[in-house]
Design brief:
The structure holds two protein chains of two kinds. Chain A is built from six helices and no strands. Chain A is an all-alpha fold. The longest helix of chain A is centred in the last third of the chain and has 17 residues, at 110-126. Chain B folds into five domains: 10-108, Uridine Diphospho-n-acetylenolpyruvylglucosamine Reductase, domain 2 (2-Layer Sandwich); 113-235, Uridine Diphospho-n-acetylenolpyruvylglucosamine Reductase, domain 3, CATH 3.30.465; 242-279 and 316-385, Alpha-Beta Plaits, CATH 3.30.70.260; 403-488, no CATH class; 499-537, Vanillyl-alcohol Oxidase, Chain A, domain 4 (Orthogonal Bundle). The chains are: A mainly alpha, B alpha+beta. Chains A and B meet through helix 1, helix 3 and helix 4 of A and loops of B.
Chain lengths: 132, 537
């Protein structure tokens, strides 16, 4: 009885039903071969990358937050955004936004932000603008 | 906002900054509102209030010689320094100091992985090395070693361990300070000291024997203010050959007591990694009647919870187990754990989960095939740094209170009731403590529970509730013998004050030490609740 009870428990409340179906496909993108690629990969991609999030989450936290914020009006993935100039990036990097904390010059220099801006612009241009 | 170090005028501050620039270069000294904004605690519950702590400047040396010189300059000018590693201590103060006007000693540029030794399973790193950096080094070199990392991978082994942070693999590696072995420290007079075997010229065992000879002062530098740690060694896990997960559920509320005892035995015997306790009854918390029962003042009776569970066809508790080692050993350990628990707790049930050879594939790391809704965070359980956990951050951040409690089921029930009742004063906060709240088995031999209310930068009324609730948690928990393990600067005096045996002799002892080596408070005055004479006056 105990086994049956617990199996019932799992079926009723805790089995992962349909999680895989709920996940969005991970977009494969072409990346610009610029110095900012490594900066993005190390400093931004762990939260703003295009891959899936941890443990069944369809998106990484930063990408998910922007998807919720823009509701499709802008791409959730930063690498598909063509509107992130260095001054705009600087504003968000140095002042933070919501759950995203501020980044100090000791960890991300102004020169690296310039590299990021160039990389994002070039990468966005390499990929078809996302409209979905 | 323009801010000066304590007891210093504008001219003195300018002269001080000029000396710093002469040591580290003009590009690595900052002051002024724009550059200092990122040194605020973005998770602060006293954001934009008079209680928020602000630094006046920051300096980022690139090596230990520069750290030493910066400390000497600060000593001459009597300027408090606040050392940070990667500055990601969110929920516990971030990069912000205890004392307004302090100068942040930002060690992020010291980012060398000095050594990773595969055969002897250790590493030696600088403070600016993140878990991401160390993991990348191990992967790029193809070393068969496993990290033990905290949830967010952008923190540093040095900073996290000095905060007594935790991870999620095997017991003796989860306690990050406990897993350190050897450190280098710049003392408040600028002298460079090495602990343990590092004090013996020519030794090759700095990362293998932590004590050397005589008293070991290493503990003074964790949550303390006796020096600036510039290197630390850590023990690493040999990459296990195999990973196995499993689930055990027990039907009755009181079964939790036995379940905890069995899991303690398995952990202390080295048979399992971190476990995740939970309650299948969490699925009922959307039901108003059940929520009222689980959060009722004084707590529900065992019979009421058992009846609710039976009505819903659910068990009261579950524990997810994780095994590391050779495949056959993980299987035998699982069979032993299952037999041990199921033979002692009537009605207990067991389920086998994902298991695979290590290292895990990307798909296995994504953790989408476990046949139950798992609480295990796969990447952190396998020592793979990530920021995926940031999805738990609500609003603009949170603060954390994690009381240390006995590793027993009875203690868990008591905390549920006592802190659940105490927090009813703050009805707008989520019921962190209720009849289903389970313990965290993070540190090697003890339990903790979580209270982590959110903060909002534009809602001071909400923050005030969070702030008041944090202080009440610290006080009420201490009345019952449960102490916080780690705290933001704004709570460190409250927490330190609860460790008050024999008229606060521990604090008075620390103050004596501080007065002896750093009476002017050059290194992080107030950190850990330890104030030097200058700031006590």
């Amino acid at each position: 009885m105990s086994i049956r009870l617990t199996l019932g428990t799992l079926a009723a409340s805790t089995l992962l039903l349909g999680v895989a179906a709920a996940r969005e496909p991970v977009r494969d993108i072409e990346r610009a071969d610029l110095p900012g690629q490594q900066v993005f990969a190390r400093q931004c991609a762990p939260c703003h990358g295009t891959g899936p999030g941890d443990d069944g989450s369809p998106m990484l936290p930063g990408t998910a937050a922007l998807a919720a914020k823009y509701e499709g009006a802008l791409p959730a993935a930063l690498e598909l955004r063509s509107d992130l100039s260095a001054p705009v990036l600087t504003l968000f990097v140095r002042r933070g936004s919501g759950a995203m904390p501020m980044f100090r010059k000791a960890e991300l220099t102004d020169a690296q932000i310039e590299e990021l801006a160039a990389y994002l612009a070039a990468t966005a241009a390499l990929n078809t603008p996302a409209t979905d | 906002m323009s801010l000066l170090p304590p007891d210093m005028d504008e001219a003195g501050f300018a002269a001080f900054l000029e000396e710093l620039r002469g040591t580290v270069g003009a590009d690595w000294v900052w002051s002024g509102e724009a550059d200092m904004f990122p040194y605020r605690d973005s998770f602060s519950p006293v954001w934009n209030t008079g209680e928020e702590r602000h630094a006046s400047a920051a300096v980022a040396p690139e090596n230990v010689e520069q750290v030493s010189e910066v400390v000497r300059i600060a000593r001459r000018h009597r300027v408090p320094l606040f050392p940070i590693s990667t500055g990601k201590n969110f929920g516990y103060g971030g990069p912000s100091p205890n004392v307004n006007g302090s100068v942040v000693l930002d060690l992020k540029r010291m980012n060398r992985v000095i050594e990773v030794n595969e055969e002897r399973a250790y590493c030696l790193v600088e403070p600016g090395v993140s878990y991401f950096d160390l993991y990348r080094e191990i992967q790029e070199r193809g070393l068969k070693l496993m990290l033990d990392c905290p949830d967010p991978g952008w923190g540093s082994p040095v900073g996290n361990s000095l905060e007594r942070g935790v991870g999620y693999t095997m017991p003796h590696f989860r306690d990050h300070f406990g897993a350190h072995c050897g450190m280098e420290v710049v003392l408040p007079d600028g002298e460079v000291m090495r602990t343990g075997m590092g004090a013996l010229p020519g030794s090759d065992t700095w990362q293998e024997y932590p004590y050397g000879f005589g008293p070991d002062p290493a503990g003074l530098f964790a949550q303390g203010n006796f020096g600036v740690v510039t290197k630390m060694g850590f023990r690493l896990l040999p990459l296990p050959e195999y990973y196995r997960s499993a689930l055990i559920t027990v039907p009755r509320r009181r079964d939790f007591v036995k379940l905890v005892n069995h899991v303690n035995y398995l952990s202390d015997s080295g048979l399992i990694g971190e476990v995740e306790y939970g309650s299948p009854l969490s699925a009922l918390m959307g039901n108003a009647d059940f929520m009222a029962l689980a959060t009722r003042t004084g707590g529900p009776s065992d019979a009421e919870m058992d009846a609710a569970a039976s009505d819903a066809g659910l068990h009261n508790w579950q524990v997810e187990l994780q095994f590391f080692g050779p495949e056959k050993a993980t299987l035998e350990n699982w069979h032993y754990a299952k037999d041990r628990i199921l033979s002692d707790i009537p009605g207990a049930a067991s389920f086998e989960g994902d298991h695979f050879p290590m290292p895990a594939t990307e798909e296995q790391l994504n953790n989408t095939t476990q046949p139950w809704q798992t609480s295990i965070k796969r990447r952190r359980s396998l020592g793979v740094p990530s920021l995926g956990a940031w999805k738990i951050v609500r609003d603009d951040g949170h603060v954390g209170f994690f009381p240390v409690l006995p590793r027993t089921g009875e203690a868990v029930f008591e905390v549920q009731r006592v802190l659940g009742d105490a927090m009813k004063e703050f009805p707008t906060l989520p019921p962190f403590f209720n009849a289903l709240t389970t313990p965290l088995f993070w540190h090697t031999h003890t339990f903790q529970m979580v209270f982590a209310p959110s903060i909002k930068h534009d809602d001071p009324a909400h923050n005030a509730i969070t702030h008041a609730a944090m202080k009440k948690c610290v006080a009420v928990a201490a009345e019952h013998g449960w102490g916080d393990y780690r705290a933001a600067p704004i709570y460190q005096d409250d927490v330190a004050g609860t460790y008050s045996f024999n008229n606060h002799i521990l604090r008075r002892f620390h103050e004596q030490l501080k007065d002896a080596i750093d009476p002017d408070g050059i290194i992080a005055p107030g950190r850990g609740g330890i104030w030097p004479r200058r700031f006590r006056a």
